[in-house]
Amino acid sequence: DGPVSLAVINGDHDQKIRGVARWEGDIAEDASIHDMMGKGYLVITIEPKKGERYQGIVALEGDNLAEILEGYFANSEQLKTRIWIRNGEIDGKKYAAGMLIQVMPDGTGSPEDFEHLEQLTDTVKNEELFTLEANELLYRLYNQEKVRLFEPQPVEFHCGCSRERSGAAIVTIDRAEVNDILAELGSISLHCDYCGTTYTYDEAEVSELFIEANSGNKTLH
Ligand SMILES: [Zn+2]
């Protein structure tokens, strides 16, 4: 119930992500997550390739998003986790970066080990986090530890919207309502808030969509 009514990120196992936030009015530069969200909660939904999708819901307990996510891992996954999320500017360029440390689900490692890594990670400076390559950063932070570095995966923006999916959404609207919009505007437009693309359908294209949808030919998903 704060000025930010919704903030959502979708991502997949290929690190392709998209996100959108909805807000009203001006938000102060130093606003906390509680100032922004008011009363709210964090929902994490995981859709495995096989099997049922599952959802974890936690209260916004903590001073910032990192602490709230730590709470999620503690409650829903029962995994001790620390997260650092930083954002800032260097030479006029904006950065956001983060780190996560987490106990291995197999139970190896002691609480002292974890605490030790926490303390080391706490020393990370914004500039290091923003500008250093991962291997260099890991070396600086944990140079007395044995580090195994996995192949890095690029994280990139990707929106899965398409003309076909927008069309599938239109045919779920009542036909009479669609006709009203067409009569008034001459066409129907759907706007994707994630990537900013607008899909427009004229009257003939809308008719085509409904014919296809009613023919039982499931080409639309
Ligand atoms: Zn899109």
Description of the molecule:
The protein is of the alpha+beta class and 221 residues long. It is 34% helix and 27% strand. It has 8 helices and 9 strands. Strands 1-2-7 form a 3-stranded mixed sheet, with no helix packed on it. A two-stranded antiparallel ribbon has the order 3-4. A two-stranded antiparallel sheet has the order 5-6. A hairpin with a 6-residue loop joins strand 8 and strand 9. The chain starts with a strand and ends in a 7-residue tail after the last helix. The model has no long low-confidence stretch (mean pLDDT 91). Bound molecules: zinc ion. The site of zinc ion has 6 residues, from loops.
Brief characterization of the structure:
By secondary structure, the protein is an alpha+beta fold. Helix content is 34%, strand content 27%. The protein is elongated and about 70 Å long.
Secondary structure elements and pairings:
Layout: E1 4-11, E2 16-23, H1 33-37, E3 41-46, E4 54-59, H2 65-77, E5 81-90, E6 93-102, H3 111-122, H4 126-131, H5 134-142, E7 156-157, H6 163-170, H7 175-185, E8 187-191, E9 198-202, H8 203-214
Parallel strand pairs: 2-7
Antiparallel strand pairs: 1-2, 3-4, 5-6, 8-9
The structure holds zinc ion.
